[in-house]
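Quick one: structure tokens for this chain, please?
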Amino acid sequence: MPQKMFFYDSKSVALRMAFWVMMACFLAPATAADSLRIVATTTVVADLVRHVAGDRVTVDCLMGPGIDPHSYKATPRDADRLARADLVVASGLHLEGKLGELLARLGDRMPVVGVADTLPRDRLLEIAPGLFDPHVWFDAALWSLCTSSVADALVALDADGADGYRMRAKNYAAELQSLDVHLREKIATIPLQKRVLVTAHDAFRYFGRAYGIEVIGVQGTSTTSEAGLNDMNRLVDRVVAQKIPVVFVETSVSDRNVTALREGARARGQNVALGSRLYSDSLGGPGSGAETLEEALRANADAIVQGLAGER
């Protein structure tokens, strides 16, 4: 009987995961690790899975570097890759908006884990009743909690590798905790009055909460929403009034709205610099120096400090 993981369940996903893991251990024989194929939806999730899985399984990333998961539509080839997987690991909390239905259907016959769906609700940022900001990896300490849900899912499929999965999950969680400390110390070097981060879309709210910086997105939490004219005018007013020196584009988001913001400020007599591109919904490609989440968050912090603290 196929195993089922309930995807995007806002009330009891943690209990259901525990039940699924327990039943899998009793009812399903462990699959040989060298035959396991894990499909991760995004580069951030793939990085998480690789840290926990090590070289024991094959990890296939559905969306490559620079791809926006909010608007991504699966191709027939993608659907085939997902259907052939032994486990699908998604970010969850509706980050993969247009993939939601496909992932839910897959969850009727195979394990599909939304890692952010397993996080305590009191640690999430609510953007509408019952709807939460999905960009949880920007809080490194919060993201560290997702390591255990990945380990649980892998153990259910490969009991022989349990010790290794648990050990790597624990080690990676510790690395993320150390990264959390570094990011907090780095952002603290920006003078308090200058800690206003303006980005292409509202993906950095967890980063702002965790590391003490105000965050403003030109677009909403999802890139499928557009900034209205009134919203843009209010943002231009604020940038000019506070003399915000720099705004940031992102590697996976169009710079159209940020360009409009800078042009609006320039028309009112203020030149606003363009900071280095930040990694938001996707990590960097080979050779970018931001191929892992740790590298990407460190690069982001360096760029933000350089832009806002005047280290140019």
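The first strand starts at residue 37 and ends at 40.
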